[in-house]
Write a structure and sequence with these properties.
Layout lengths: L9 E6 L3 H13 L3 E7 L3 H11 L3 E3 L2 H7 L4 E4 L6 H10 L3 E5 L6 H14 L3 E4 L6 H12 L5 E11 L12 H4 L3 H16 L5 E8 L11 E8 L4 E10 L5 E8 L2 E5 L3 E6 L2 E5 L8 H20 L9 H20 L3 E2 L2 H4 L1
Parallel strand pairs: 1-2, 1-4, 2-3, 4-5, 5-6, 7-10
Antiparallel strand pairs: 7-11, 8-9, 8-15, 9-10, 11-12, 12-13, 13-14
Length: 349
């Protein structure tokens, strides 16, 4: 059966009822004109029941295998802790079901690579939830850089720093056997993926990490600073933190090119012309949380459009997610050794 034969409404099962499901995915899925949320599943049956009642979903499960056995689903949304991404994706593919899986795809690149052949053999679509690729400001950056009106980009500086609140977002994030890592796999992976994508997916030359633990009570990293060198003289410098002692959280990025500069939040584009700085008239129109919510809605719309055959190319495929996890693996190695980790570019090819 070909995915392009799917008809509206697409029957979807949602697995995992944590904050990201409640705040972002379910509200947009139930409102989508081409989607029918057929079932909700979570090991906490009571939580699943509450959400099912809120969104008028009839079928509730505590076991994904039972859900998949009872319903002919077109796709599942896996919004679970990271250690469940690999087994649940493999299970869905064996059942002939398309998959949307939240980032990161897996805890390590080795885990994620097990999915490449499985996806190819299944003939189904698997999309990874890299929502930054669907942000209005990041898309604007991509369009500007693709137009080459600012010349060749060579340096990106980015940060995602959460103000110290004295509490973890979700308990499982602090358990490495479940999450695979800390703030790097939670926030840093989005900055890496978006930067790599903005650059046009270049090869990685080397990575270097700097780590300081701010909260000694948790066993995964909560502050992480890193430098990634790409081919063609491009690089990314970034910092991420869950608990930085600052007055307000910050999400920021700056892209420098041969003849210009782009800054997000607030969005600003400048170009050097005849030795003078000229402000270019680009505007985003919305900011902050509106952009974030729109990005989640955009990636859901895109996934549905792919399944309906309205567009053919997945915006965030498994192959890309595996490459990003090779980068995070190398950064963890750099953190442990205190040394730069260089990539064998022949192996990357």
């Amino acid at each position: 059966m070909s995915d392009k034969n799917l008809k509206s409404p697409i029957k979807i099962g949602v697995v995992g009822c944590g904050g990201i499901a409640q705040i972002m995915h379910l509200p947009f899925l139930v409102q989508h004109p081409d989607v029918e949320v057929t079932a909700i599943c979570d090991v906490d049956y009571r939580k699943a029941s509450i959400l099912a009642g809120r969104y008028q979903v009839k079928n509730i499960y505590a076991d994904i295998e039972e859900m998949l056995a009872r319903h002919m689903l077109d796709a599942v949304f896996l919004l679970t802790p990271t250690n469940l991404h690999l087994p649940m994706t493999l299970l869905a593919l064996r059942k002939g079901i398309n998959v949307f899986v939240e980032k990161p795809l897996a805890r390590t690149a080795a885990e994620a690579e097990r999915l490449i052949q499985a996806v190819q053999n299944s003939g189904r679509r698997v999309m990874v939830g890299m929502q930054s690729r669907f942000r209005r400001d990041v898309l604007a950056m991509k369009n500007i850089l693709s137009s080459e009106e600012l010349g060749q980009p060579f340096f990106i500086k980015a940060e995602w720093l959460l103000a110290d609140t004295g509490s973890m977002k979700q308990n499982w994030l602090s358990k490495k056997r479940i999450s695979g890592g800390g703030v790097l796999l939670d926030l840093g992976i989005q900055l890496i993926d978006a930067s790599w994508w903005l650059y046009g997916k270049p090869e990685v030359v080397s990575v270097k990490a700097v780590h300081r633990q701010l909260n000694p009570k948790i066993k995964v990293e909560d502050f992480f600073s890193f430098l990634i060198e790409f081919s063609e003289g491009m690089s990314l410098s970034a910092q991420v933190s869950w608990d930085l002692p600052i007055d307000r959280s910050r999400f920021q990025a700056e892209v420098y090119s041969d003849s210009g500069y782009i800054r997000m939040n607030p969005f600003k584009v400048q170009r050097v012309e005849k030795g003078r700085i000229r402000l270019l008239p680009y505007q985003i129109g919305i900011s902050g949380r509106e952009i974030l919510r729109e990005a989640y809605r955009n990636e859901i719309d895109h996934f549905v459009d792919v399944l309906l055959g309205k567009t053919g190319q997945l915006g965030s495929p498994v192959d890309d997610a595996v490459k990003i996890l090779h980068i995070t693996d190398a950064l963890y190695k750099s953190m442990q050794t205190g040394c730069e980790v260089r990539f064998d570019r022949r192996e990357e090819k």
